[in-house]
Amino acid sequence: MEENRTAVKGMPDDRAGETRERLSVREFAAAPELGLKLEVLYGGEGLANEIRSARIQKLGLALAGFTDYLHPNRVQVLGGSELNYLEILNPEARRNALLGLRDRKICCILMTKGLAAPEDLLALASAAKIPVLRSTAPSSLTITRIGDYLDRRLAPRIAVHGALLDVFGLGVLLLGPSGIGKSECALELIVKGHRLVADDYIEITRSGVDCLTGSGGPVLRYHMELRGLGIIDIKELFGISATGHSQAIHIVIRLERWREDEEYDRLGLDQSAIEFLGIPVPLIEMPVAPGRNVATLVEIAARIQLLRQRGFLPSRELPDLHLPAPAAEGVGP
């Protein structure tokens, strides 16, 4: 089966540029989503340092002198094992071990288990402008929560213009030029019992290896703009069950105006794809014309995608069938 891929950069009407989030140590230390109630033991100018990686690193090897793989943009964790190692060193060796971190431009150091910070560590922090934070939780819990938070907070993202809905449990992203009827189609799907995630502005983030998640902006969440009616509140009109906060994106349907000279897929054998942030998503090009119920067609497309995910597609068997040749115009009953 042939697969066609369309890069998102080929759709200037639908997308905005990719952005990468930045996170200061000050914002990280105060983030309520962490649930760790981090304490700032030393901050100073270093609180403006940026965390740019979602991965966490422990300082054990670096304290032992192996600093080649020390990543300065990661949160550096100092737990019980690392502090026990420092305690068994004589004062000069301990000072030298910490001095090996001075010129590595570390964004921050996080201590766990509520452990006391050695004086030599605080002296290093002051000299190198490295913030030192502390969590009362054990290292395993602290690392897990920080990793989950940073994965969400620092995920690559891109903004597109369209409508995102939950249709039969699938995330369906509607794209197309302005005025094609994306919002009207989304509204009819809501009336049919499906859920709106976002309209007009969709922020897509990449998490993990192959997962894309879409959500709306905080300003007009649960709202939709309809020409002639203005901005309507879907939650107030249809209830909270008609809305969603975020949704994994499983299929993209791009609406376009019907063109007589265009060849459209009539058997459903070719599987096209569109890429967002390097991850391909199944794409359906759907022509819009008077008399076509686009919302119903979107529902059918979602059902077909569910069948594809189960490995079943009836149209694959059509080439093996002996179909009769089409009758000439004006011939036949």
Detailed description of the structure:
A hairpin with a 3-residue loop joins strand 14 (223-226) and strand 15 (230-233). The chain has helices at 25-30, 60-63, 80-88, 91-99, 119-128, 139-153, 182-191, 234-238, 294-309; strands at 3-7, 15-19, 23-24, 39-42, 50-51, 56-58, 75-78, 108-111, 132-134, 157-167, 170-175, 195-207, 211-216, 223-226, 230-233, 246-248, 251-257, 271-276, 279-288. The chain is of the alpha/beta class. 25% of the residues lie in helices and 31% in strands. The longest helix is centred in the last third of the chain and has 16 residues, at 294-309. Helix 7 (182-191) packs across helix 9. The strands form four sheets. Strands 1, 2, 10, 11, 12, 13, 16, 17, 18 and 19 form a ten-stranded mixed beta sheet that branches. The protein is built from nine helices and 19 strands. 30% of the residues are buried.
